[in-house]
Design brief:
351 residues; mainly alpha; Arc Repressor Mutant, subunit A; 3 domains; three-stranded mixed beta sheet; elongated
Length: 351
């Protein structure tokens, strides 16, 4: 591609990364995207440096499509404006003022490894001609070759479409796709449909690097192990509805393995059997009360104990209190001799 003109809408004469960018934008962005943005800033402030998509791709050992994806991301964040010529070729990149740019509404990242949910683009199948054209690109050809190696057969059109969807639409790097296929095959899951479910789950949770995927897998394994240990489950995998509960506890309630295990242990103590529903009711209550640690649970237990004691005292006080008089027992009580009454009644009948 030809050289591209870089310019900005303010007059800074030095390379500077505003704290506002770091605080509001960088923390949510893919690390590779951040590197591209910082390199653009460097080029912007040094007229002697030339800039083109191919130059940046070579510098970071990426494909040109990877660089374009990064640029489009920052344009979506309103930090760049991409400019195109009459042939729809990228001809300019304008840096927008970070300070005056409204911050996109990005969901807060939880303290867990979970990432904000991402909009998932729809799946589009490539035509045979498009598949042949894409297969001519060196990075695509290498990616498909590696996939064939793991799967042990020549890829069919469905498998190629799926892998290209992860690459082109979900913006997965080649390394992340390699790891996805490798980890699934290692677990004896060679179905492309199974791999697609994993890929969509990663995309939804913002998994964008191999390290992210490994961290998520480690956390996933830790929680599953903790639940099995707390419930005493051995010799079987979780069934579908159990996995759904565990996923809810992690992704919606944002609880870690220790808190989830505590709820499971309390379930066994309370009803002496495995019940994901009962454990869920405990965790749902903890979420409602903003529990985030075992200290919070202890504080909640203490509060519950104090309320129970107060309630018990009130109940005992009511039991010991003398009965209140009413209008029926305000009259003086009379005593009767039953035998005498019977004699009087008999004499009355005889007369």
């Amino acid at each position: 591609m030809a050289d591209i003109t870089l310019h900005r809408d303010n007059e800074f004469q030095r390379t500077i990364v505003p704290n506002y960018f770091i605080d509001a934008y960088m923390v949510h962005a893919n690390g590779e995207y951040v590197k591209v943005y910082l390199y653009l800033l460097r080029c912007m402030n040094d007229p002697s440096m030339s800039f083109s998509i191919s130059d940046v791709a070579d510098k970071f050992d990426h494909t040109e499509k990877d660089i374009i994806r990064a640029l489009k991301y920052w344009e979506k964040m309103h930090l760049l404006r991409l400019e195109f010529d009459e042939n729809k070729e990228l001809s300019g990149i304008c840096f927008l003022d970070v300070i005056s740019t409204p911050v996109p509404q990005i969901p807060a990242v939880s303290v867990q490894l979970e990432k904000p949910d991402t909009s998932i683009p729809p799946r589009e199948n490539y035509s045979a001609a498009e598949l042949r054209r894409l297969n001519e690109e060196a990075d695509i050809r290498e990616l498909l070759f590696v996939a064939e190696h793991y799967l042990g057969h020549t890829l069919n059109a469905t498998e190629m479409n799926a892998i290209l969807y992860w690459k082109e639409s979900l913006n997965f790097s080649s390394d992340l796709i390699d790891y996805l296929i490798e980890s699934c095959v290692a677990k004896n899951h060679k179905s492309i449909h199974y791999m697609e479910k994993v890929a969509l789950s990663w995309a939804k949770d913002g998994i964008s690097t191999v390290s992210d995927a490994k961290a998520r897998e480690n956390q996933h394994n830790e929680v599953h192990h903790a639940v099995k240990k707390a419930f005493g489950i051995q010799g079987r995998a979780f069934v579908s509805y159990e996995q759904t509960y565990i996923s809810t506890w992690q992704k919606e309630y944002h609880f870690d393995a220790d808190i989830i295990a505590e709820a499971c242990e309390r379930t066994i103590h309370a009803i002496h059997q495995v019940s994901f529903e009962y454990a869920d009711s405990i965790l749902k209550n903890w979420k409602k009360n903003n529990v985030s640690s075992k200290k919070d649970i202890a504080a909640l237990d203490l509060l519950h104990q104090e309320k129970s004691q107060q309630s018990a005292k009130r109940t005992e006080a009511v039991k010991k209190a003398p009965a209140k008089k009413n209008r029926f027992n305000d009259f003086p009580q009379r005593s009767y001799d039953t035998s005498q009454l019977e004699k009087e009644l008999l004499n009355y009948g005889a007369n």
